[in-house]
Amino acid sequence: KNQVEQSPQSLIILEGKNCTLQCNYTVSPFSNLRWYKQDTGRGPVSLTIMTFSENTKSNGRYTATLDADTKQSSLHITASQLSDSASYICVVSARGNTDKLIFGTGTRLQVFP
Amino acid sequence: DADVTQTPRNRITKTGKRIMLECSQTKGHDRMYWYRQDPGLGLQLIYYSFDVKDINKGEISDGYSVSRQAQAKFSLSLESAIPNQTALYFCATSASNTGELFFGEGSRLTVL
Questions:
Q1: Which of A50, A85, A101, B4 is the one with CA 20 to 30 A from B100?
Q2: Which DSSP helix (H) or strand (E) runs through A98?
Q3: Phi, psi at B111, each rounded to 5°
Q4: Nearest-by-Cβ selection for A103 from B42, B56, B102
């Protein structure tokens, strides 16, 4: 069964600190892996999309890694800001006639001053 | 202005009522989607459309219907709303099969 599991479920950090969010998946055949940021009450916004051949991709202070062998991804946030408070959703695309997206349940990050 | 606009943003209705959620986009994308988000669950696909004449069921289409009125417009209907359809609904668009999804701001529906 195609699944995407994220950890931790929630995380609290102080402003300026770094943090790493984890995503493990059992999706086959793999097409790509995406990270989205969802502010409370808003729609998700794409941070990164990685294909099988990419093992790291950055978007400003956000850096995603992908290990396709172990089927793990991480999202590292550097020098956190209050505006980073949001849910971060890992999404894995299963290749097919039409790629199917499998969404994780997200990690809720709170950044305090 | 938002690229993907959903109306209404919030709606409270009663069991048995017909509800329509509307989505319009200015991104020029052919592909449009309706998702449902429940607390503690990942987003689930309700319906998707790859062009005006193409409608496909997603994972949880029972109790829902859609209409693609134009390339830019995709509406979701609940013919007879029930309480377990209380959720946050998102419309999204993409330019290609593997491309980035662009989401609307969401429509929060409460069925009493």
A1: A85
A2: none
A3: -110, 115
A4: B42
Are A44 and B56 an interchain contact pair (Cβ–Cβ within 8 Å)?
A: no
Considering only CB atoms, which chain B residues are within 8 Å of A32? 98
Dihedral sign, Cα of residue A88, residue A94, residue A100, residue A102: negative
Residues near A59 by beta carbon (within 8 Å), at least 6 away in sequence: A47, A48
Minimal CA–CA distance to B87: which of B37, B35, B47, B34? B37
How far does the CA of residue B47 sit from the closest CA of chain A (Å)? 12
Q: What is the DSSP letter of A8?
A: -
Paired with B33 in beta bridges are B48, B92
Tell me the C-alpha distance between B73 and B95, whole Å.
15
Tens of each residue's pLDDT in chain B, 112 residues: 679 999 999 999 999 999 999 999 999 999 999 999 998 888 999 999 999 989 999 999 999 999 999 999 999 999 999 999 999 999 999 987 667 899 999 999 999 9
* B39 at interface of A, judged by CB pairs closer than 8 A: no
